[in-house]
Amino acid sequence: MVHKVQGVIVREKNAPATIETILVPEPGPGEALVDILTSGVCHTDLHYQQGGISDDFPFLLGHEATGIVNSVGPDVTEVKPGDRVILNWRAVCGECRACAKGQPQYCFNTHNATQKMTLEDGTELSPALGIGAFIEKTLVAAGQCTKVDDESDAAAIGLLGCGIMAGIGAAINTGEVKRGESVAVIGCGGVGIAAIQGSQLAGATTIIAVDIDQAKLDRALELGATHAVNSRNEDPVEAIRALTGGHGADVVIEAVGRPETYKQAFYARDLAGRVVLVGVPTPEMMLELPLLDIFGRGGSLKSSWYGDCLPSRDFPMLVEQYKLGRLNLDAFVSERIGLGDVEAAFAKMHAGTVLRSVVEL
Ligand code: APR
Ligand code: ZN
Ligand code: ZN
Question: Which residue ranges does the record assign to the Enoyl reductase (ER) domain (predicted)?
Answer without folding.
Answer: 17-359
